[in-house]
Amino acid sequence: MAAPSVLLRRRRTAEPGRGRPAPGGAARRRPGRTEQLTGWAFITPGVAIILLFGAVPIVWSAVMSFQSNNLLTGNTPYVGLRNYRLMLHDPVVAQAVQHTFVYTALFVPGTMIVGLFLAVAMNRKIRFISVYRTAAYATMAISTISEAIVFIWLFDPSYGVVNYFLSLVGIPPQQFLNSPSQALFVIVAMTIWGWTGFSVVIYLAALQGVPQMLMDAAAVDGASKWTTFRRVTLPLLSPASLFLAVWLTINALQLFDEVYLSTQGGPLNATTVLVYYLYDQAFVNFNFGYASAIAYFLFLIIIVVTAIQFRAGRRFTHYRS
Amino acid sequence: MTATAQALPRRRFRLPFSPWHLVLVPATLALIFPFVWLVVTSVETPAEALHFPPVLIPHELHFANYPNALAAAPFGRFFLNSAVVAVTTVLCNLVFCSLAGYAFARLRFLGRGLFFAVIMTTLMVPFQVTMIPQFIITKWLGVHVLAQVGINHLGALILPNAATAFGIFFLRQFFRTLPVEYEESARVDGANRLKVLWRIVLPLSAPALATLAALTFLDSWNNFLWPLIAVTSTNQMTVPLGLATFQGAHATEWTLLMAGNVMSLVPMLLIFVVAQRYFVRSVAATGLAGT
Amino acid sequence: MRTHWVSLTVASCLVALGLAACGSDASSGGSGGGHTISIWEGWTGAEAKEFTHLVGVYQKQNPGTTISSLYVNNDNTLQKVLTAVRGGSPPDIAYLYGSWAPNVAQIPQVVNLTKVVQRPGVNWNDFWVGERDVATVNGKVIGVPALVDNLAVVYNKTLFAQAHLPVPSANWTWQQFVSDAAKLTNPAKKQFGTAYVTPGSEDTVWHWEVLLWEAGGQILKPGNKQAAFDSPAGLMALNTIRQMAVTDHSMYLDPTDSAYANLFNSGKIGMLVTGPWDLSGFPNIHYGVQIMPSFPGTTGGHQTISGPDNWVIFNNGASQTAAAEKFLLWLTAPAQVKSWSLATGDLPTRHSVETTPGFMSAMNKALPGVDTFVTNLGNVHQARPQTAAYPKVSQILGTMIVSVLLGKSQPQAALSSAAQQVNQALASSNG
Asked: Looking at residue C124, which CATH number applies to its domain?
């Protein structure tokens, strides 16, 4: 797509200019007033919508977290930090945090690796390639209830296919969703399956930006396919990898639907993750103020984790063509 | 293709097809097996759907599930509603997120980092908590600004998602991978930012735009919780809400539900098949070969 | 292509606005003094058809009144109602689970129906006592019964015959249930004697509470401030199910609440403790229905538990409320209850309908076995505690039951620990 000579991105030579309008056709760029205004103008529609429907509700919810609110009456007295203090002493919150982190640590790398492998496999013009790609995308389109039903069946301790295959290699039947120690891993498997398509689609789009010429040049230089992949392709995919890592993590930390539709947090809270617990507090126990506080705690976790990822990303991602 | 030529080792045995099929076929089967269950259930008799373990080879095919599902609720209207909402949402996202994504990727302006961070933070609070304020805001907008974006209108399903942090983040990442030289040379020629975006950046971004379109369509089409809250009359329901009418609290009409699910999948798959054409851009088409 | 893109956006926005404008105003009032009553319900299948039919009949009899019904899955109704209430737009009528009643009663917009149900002709006492108990919170009637059910034992006649076991009789005991379950279990055929749902939710809990009541126990002490299940009755109830799950392995544990019914319909389970709603899901086997077994020597008898649900009216103004009341009283009048039950197989919410000549045989012809469930309504003597803290109690009990069934804790220790937690939870709530 681009000549190899533009591989190395030249640093911008523009100095921050002040005041003097650029003469027509100047190659140096300064963040002058035009650029500022253009920048603001461009972001206005998107940011306005997101602020109105995203930021305002978040601030509203923050206020709710300092109240005692059961959602039933309009009576929501201010209780200060009580909800947050309760949270620190709630053993289920500690369990939920642990489960959420374990889940995320397994789900994110798992989905990225499987997706990358399949995207690389699907990034070629062989027969039926459209079918393969559509199949990957289709896994995102399936309704969560169908996904849940199939996986519940597959992992059934008595009638499921997984135990059948395990029995063929001599492993005794596992309890899976009946076992507090295994249930979370079943959810991991279910959600990796459900998100692989997303990972494939993102990596496929990014792979279009990896010039074939580069790979050929590397091959000519005698590099093996694996080395080419590691040294050329992966770095060029790093922006997509960062995007996926951040996006998948944000979603993983907010896991809800699959838990709600299968184990409902059980058995014995083994699959209770933070969002499931806050839903339970809000709409089963009518403790909406407490649920908002848990949501805020989760919010802080996500911000910190995402910031760490962006920071690490700055070191490892290469924005080259 | 050169990759295939390199991959074939010097053995006497040569496969008549690319060896990648040996990887892709099992992988694809692993990906689509739940669809097998879905499709089989959609053509089973209701009695046969009530087995566990599920029956994968039905004794008789019962295609009547499809017309029965369509007749059970005004699905024609639901499909139209979903289509209008999804298409409008996609188009709005393509426009707004391109603008914002480009600004965040290439322009320098006061508050760039802050706005981007704020946008990202809106992804980090679960909907169960924000749905009540969002309902109140939507209701207020419907009363004070424009009726068509208020509760129980399709506009209420479109507007909150007309620009998403996902879209902005995704396009920003993608735009940053493009060589900035093309844009710079265009600006040297006197083009303003909008022209640069429209003429240079977007054509080069076809894979990303197609991906964003496909993913946004899917998200919008499958959205359940917000439409559940915002819709209060049957003729404004979308397809997921319509499918939910087969799922009672105590008994679910599986065959109708799965038939409905299959029909609901078709538009999403069609969009993806169309979007796929833009996934691979040839250099010749952009006219930038040899630059 | 680019100009097409822009005009596409514009065009579809216009279409969206146009459709939005012309479609949505179903909630404005009808012509000249008529009312539109919005009702949120979760009927599916036969129930949905019958409801649409009844609504049509009412609209014909009351020209000018439109009933605008919206389907909402019953599990989701609470979220939707609470959001709407907070946003100032509740529906006129909503179908709400009875288990939510003590909390729903606190919503200021919920209409107090105490005087309404005492009106002449309504015959409030014709509704089963379990329903009336669930519709009443602190002496205030907040709902009209919409649905009633109860738990009984559904068994597979073929499996009983294959195991050479006599089918359950009306005066059977839990000992017989346990021994039957053991005899019906066949690991080689992956066949279980019975099943139990173990998501830890209220479904797990109420299946055990019925045993507790039959053993003569109580859930909470009068006043709903202290646990009472930590008793010999509670121990007996817990040991009974533990025996089947942990010792005999005759109990299939369903952690997702989704497989047990289809398993039963596939002939893999011998007996189920379940309700009438499941009967239509068993077309592939010969089943029979029997009332619950008892614990001999206790006061509980063959008691059962019921889970009624309510129609709740929200205050959208005096005339809307009056119209909603009128519709609900018509909908729950004996004639409509009879028509409903015969068409859907749901148990009649009124006692008088049960004794209507020909009713029971017609019901049973449409849905075999349902007559036992109907007469079993006479075995409902009490309801679960009507306290706003019940959801918390339920979760503690759910965890206790699941941990015993999974073999993770011993019954006595589990009971004591749960009782302690319940007392703490009740003390810190304001009932």
From this structure: 3.40.190.10
The domain tally of chain C equals 2
State which fold the B76-245+265-280 domain adopts.
MetI-like fold (1.10.3720)
Question: What is the pLDDT, as a whole number, of residue A83?
Answer: 94
Quote the crossing angle between the two packed helices B20-42 and A91-122, to the nearest 10°. 120
Determine, yes or no, domain membership for C15: no
Residue B181 carries which side chain, given as an amino acid letter?
Answer: E
Mean pLDDT of chain C: 91
Write down all domains in chain A, each with its CATH number in brackets.
42-316 (1.10.3720.10)
C281 and C320 belong to one structural domain = no
Is residue A267 within 8 Å of residue C198, measured between CB atoms? Answer: yes
Give A16→chain B minimum CA distance, Å. 10
Q: Are residues C193 and C300 in the same domain?
A: yes
CB contact (8 A) between residue B132 and residue C87: yes
Residue C16 has pLDDT above 80, yes or no: no
In the predicted structure, residue B6 carries a pLDDT above the cut 60: no
The percent of residues above 70 in pLDDT, for chain A, comes to 89
C218 assigned to some structural domain: yes
In whole angstroms, give the CA distance from residue B241 to residue C368. 33
Tell me which residue of B168, B227, A271, A2 sits closest to C83, measured CA to CA. Answer: B227
Q: What is the ipTM of this complex?
A: 0.88
Of B32, B87, B40, give the one whose Cα is nearest residue B59: B40
Could you report the per-residue pLDDT of C344-373, keeping only the tens digit for each? 999 999 999 999 999 999 999 999 999 999
- Are C72 and C157 members of one domain? no
C124 and C61 part of one domain:
yes
Are B135 and C83 inside 8 Å of each other by CB?
yes
- Cβ distance A1 to B27 less than 8 Å, yes or no, reads no
Q: CA of C158 to nearest chain A CA: how many angstroms apart?
A: 21
Q: Taking CB atoms and an 8 Å limit, are A268 and C256 in contact across chains? A: no
Question: Chain B contacts of C254, Cβ < 8 Å?
Answer: none
Q: Judge: C108–A268 Cβ closer than 8 Å, yes or no.
A: no
**pTM for the model:** 0.89
* C138 and C82 part of one domain: yes
The answer to whether position C260 is within a domain reads yes
C263 within some domain: yes
Q: Please name the member of B126, B211, B286 whose beta carbon is closest to the beta carbon of A278.
A: B126
Q: Which residues of B touch A197 (CB under 8 A)?
A: 31
What residue ranges do the domains of chain B occupy? 76-245+265-280
Q: Which chains touch A (3 or more CB pairs under 8 A)?
A: B, C
Helix ranges, chain A (H): 33-50, 56-65, 82-89, 91-122, 129-141, 144-154, 161-168, 183-207, 212-220, 225-228, 234-252, 257-261, 274-283, 288-316
Distance from CA of A187 to the nearest CA of B (A): 15
- Is 90 exceeded by the pLDDT of residue C128? yes
The alpha-carbon gap from A228 to the nearest alpha carbon of chain B, in Å, equals 12
* Paired strand residues for C314: C110
Q: Which residues of A touch C252 (CB under 8 A)?
A: 158
Question: Given a cut of 50, is residue A3 above it in pLDDT?
Answer: no
C78/C93 same-domain check: yes
Domain encompassing residue C396: 152-306+385-428
Instruction: Render pLDDT for B61-104 as a digit per residue (tens, 0 to 9).
Output: 999 999 999 999 999 999 999 999 999 999 999 999 999 999 99
Q: Which two tokens stand for residue C200?
A: 């830890």
**Residue B190 pLDDT grade (very low, low, confident, very high; cuts 50, 70, 90):** confident
Distance of CA B206 to the CA centre of its chain: 16
Does B155 contact C45 at a Cβ distance shorter than 8 Å? no
Region of poorest pLDDT, from B115-129, B275-289, C228-242? B275-289
A177 strand-pairing partners: none
C30 vs chain A: nearest CA distance in angstroms?
31
Q: Do C24 and B152 touch (CB under 8 A)?
A: yes
Q: Do B52 and A153 touch (CB under 8 A)?
A: yes
- pLDDT higher than 70, residue C4: no
> Does residue C77 share a domain with residue C190?
no
| Residues in chain A closer than 8 A to C391 (CB atoms) | 284-286
State which residue of chain B sits closest to C3, comparing Cα positions. B198
**Candidates B139, B154, B228; nearest CB to C19:** B154
How far is the C-alpha of C280 from the C-alpha of C370, rounded, in Å?
10
Q: Give, in degrees to the nearest 5, the angle at Cα A299 between A294 and A302.
A: 130
